[in-house]
UniProtKB/TrEMBL annotation:
Its cofactor is pyridoxal 5'-phosphate. Its EC number is 2.8.1.7. Keywords: Pyridoxal phosphate, Transferase. Belongs to the class-V pyridoxal-phosphate-dependent aminotransferase family. Csd subfamily. Residues 70-437 form the Aminotransferase class V domain. Gene3D superfamilies: Aspartate Aminotransferase, domain 1, Type I PLP-dependent aspartate aminotransferase-like (Major domain). The keyword Transmembrane does not apply. This is Cysteine desulfurase. The keyword Transferase applies. It comes from Shewanella septentrionalis. It holds the Pfam family Aminotran_5.
């Protein structure tokens, strides 16, 4: 079995514009002057950010006397008022089950629900609306695919999995392998914590049945060139799935360009509600998979002798769906289509660079992963201090970061870590958030070191 490489944690002093070839493993001076080589966008960008930020009620609160500094968007994003309003409007005025009833509330509910499917077709640039399946999140989406492909997989078939994958893109494939006798092979990482392209090409010579990738690493923010990786996999006849949970709130998506068979993500990471997710599937492949759930809504005809399933998308949406959440997701899509402009994307990228540079300048900070194209996430540890201790002390100053293994234990093992801290930004994050975080971390450093 191919083993993942063991990238070495890096404490780095280079600026955000350096390439991986320039990285040196060293300790920055504890008295380093904050890096000034990263210049943020114009005042116009700051005004645009302020306008966006004003739409998020949760950000305007105090925690133990400190204003909230929310740097945990990779775990779940905050919600703009328009998402909250859309869900409240549904419950207050249109609350009814979809598709079956003859009354007006149900008709309005169904219209709103199915309108979001049309929005998603446009948002993802999918060919057909029937290629959009509503689920309860990325995890359910991947489980649905992994279960649905059971009949397509035989003993000895190879399943390739990104070595930096979230557990949700590992465990369902392991269960599929248990059911079928298939073999799991991790795609190794190189020293920069990117997928090792050479090793990947070698593994593809095994003619894998399935290749499961992540678009953006939830732990490190590293971006995979998924269109290239999918193209290589398809040449070997593999079915491809891309976990886009960390990409959807930051990138403009085009599933036709990526050309994958399945693309999955969650609403709550893209400024929508929890409890709703999306499975995109290429129609000819999606139409062959067995349903994970059976019962109401997904049938065409039922008798005690035989049941005939309905057509897509209903066949894969058994039971009462998360109607209010889907409607909230529609509002989140509208929000992103309005606000996630190229200028905002550039501002987000500059904030990540600024965050990295300030952490390096602080000294005694270990940064992990590739640093020249991270999206949304910076993973770090403070010297040899336990990540949980650092997170708790930051929380006491109103700073919200994530600490732990980030549902990526195999990745942590390859880094020789039990866990790390993760600061992640969103469309509402600004320079003041980064400065407050760095000041708070400096005080934690003074306390612990």
């Amino acid at each position: 079995m191919t083993q993942a490489a063991s990238p070495t944690p890096n404490t780095v002093t280079h600026t955000a514009t350096n390439t991986m070839a320039d990285i040196e493993t060293s300790h920055a001076s504890a008295n380093a002057v904050p890096d000034t080589t990263v210049t943020l966008c114009s005042s116009e960008a700051e005004k645009q950010n302020a306008q966006i930020r004003s739409q998020f009620p949760a950000l305007h609160q105090m925690l133990d006397g400190y204003p909230l500094c929310y740097l945990d968007t990779a775990a779940t994003s905050q919600k703009p008022q328009m998402v909250l309003d859309a869900m409240a409007q549904f419950y207050a005025n249109d609350n009814a089950n979809v598709h079956r009833a003859a009354h007006q509330l149900s008709a309005r509910s169904t219209l709103s629900y199915e309108k979001v499917r049309d929005q998603l077709q446009q948002f993802l640039k999918a060919e057909r609306r029937e290629e959009i399946i509503f689920t309860h999140g990325t995890t359910e989406s991947i489980n649905l695919v992994a279960f649905g492909l059971t009949a397509h997989v035989n003993a000895g078939d190879v399943i390739l999995i990104d070595a930096a994958a979230h557990h949700a893109n590992i465990v369902p494939w392991q269960e599929l392998a248990k059911r079928t006798g298939a073999v799991i092979e991790p795609i190794p990482l190189d020293q920069a914590c990117r997928l090792d392209l050479s090793a990947y090409k070698t593994l593809l010579e095994l003619k894998p049945k399935i290749v499961a990738l992540c678009h953006v690493s939830n732990a490190l923010g590293t971006v995979n060139q998924v269109a290239q990786l999918v193209q290589l996999a398809k040449k070997q006849g593999a079915i491809t799935l891309v976990d886009g949970a960390q990409a959807v709130a930051h990138l403009t998506l085009d599933v036709a360009e990526i050309d994958c068979d399945f693309y999955v993500f969650s609403g709550h990471k893209m400024y929508g509600p929890t409890g709703v997710g999306v499975l995109y599937g290429r129609f000819d492949v999606l139409d062959t998979i067995a349903p994970l759930l059976t019962g109401g809504e997904m049938i065409k005809r039922v008798s005690f002798e035989v049941t005939e399933f309905g057509s897509l998308p209903n066949r894969l949406e058994a039971g009462t769906p998360p109607i209010a959440e889907v409607i909230g997701l529609g509002a989140a899509i509208t929000f992103l289509q309005t606000e996630l402009t190229p200028q905002v994307q550039a501002y987000e990228a500059e904030l990540v660079n600024y965050l990295q540079s300030q952490l390096r300048a602080l000294g005694e900070v270990h940064l992990y992963g590739a640093f020249d194209d991270n999206i949304g996430v910076v993973a770090f540890n403070l010297a040899d201090e336990h990540h949980q201790d650092v997170g708790i002390l930051l929380d006491q100053q109103g700073i919200a970061v994530r600490c732990g293994h980030h549902c990526a234990m195999p990745l942590m093992q390859s880094l020789n870590l039990k866990g790390c801290c993760r600061a992640s930004i969103g469309i509402y994050t600004n320079k003041d958030d980064i400065d407050r975080f760095i000041a708070a971390l400096a005080s934690v450093k003074d306390l612990l070191l």
